[in-house]
Amino acid sequence: QVQLVESGGGSVQAGGSLRLSCAASGRTFSSYGVGWFRQAPGKERGFVAFITLSGGATRYADSVKGRYTISRDNAKNTVYLQMNTLKPEDTAVYYCAAGAFSTTPEKYNYWGQGTQVTVSS
Q1: Could you give the CA distance from residue 52 to residue 55 in angstroms, rounded to a whole number?
Q2: With CB atoms 3.0 to 4.6 Å apart as the test, which of 11, 33, 52, 89 could cross-link to 57 if both were Cys?
Q3: Is 111 left (phi over 0), alpha (psi -120 to 50) or beta?
Q4: Quick one: average pLDDT of 24-34?
Q5: Which pLDDT score, from 0 to 100, does residue 88 have?
Q6: Contact indicator for 119, 12 with CB cutoff of 8 Å
Q7: CA atoms within 13 A on the CB side of 8
């Protein structure tokens, strides 16, 4: 079992930056691929980025490529999502998930509670 807790969300103006953290406890975190997803009001939960066990490979949604960077520190049991050049359309609740290397939310076994990101124009 893995417990995930996101933090770092908040309100920012367009063009600004935020860094989200996903802290894990429980089973060995380094055994899991980790993904970030987001859900805006009235929309389905969508893929943002994922990172493999060692951090050697990453993948991004086209909408965030070049602006977001996912990374992990297995010694700290934490995965990060650095978000730069934020846009109003990035506004959503952001979730981290563990247990897969997939763009499909249903593939992941463990989820955090989410953290709100609001970008104003």
Answers
A1: 5
A2: 52
A3: beta
A4: 82
A5: 97
A6: yes
A7: 18
Q: Judge contact between 92 and 63, C-beta under 8 A.
A: no
Locus of tokens 């978000």: 83
Measure CA 53 to chain center: 15
Q: What are the structure tokens assigned to 87, written together?
A: 């846009």
Are residues 79 and 50 in contact, defined by beta-carbon separation less than 8 angstroms?
no
SS3 state of residue 98:
strand
| SS3 track for 55-95 | CCCEEECCCCCCCEEEEEEHHHCEEEEEECCCCHHHCEEEE
**Taking 90 as the threshold, does the pLDDT of residue 4 lie above it?**
yes
Which pLDDT value is given to residue 120? 98
Type of residue numbered 19: R
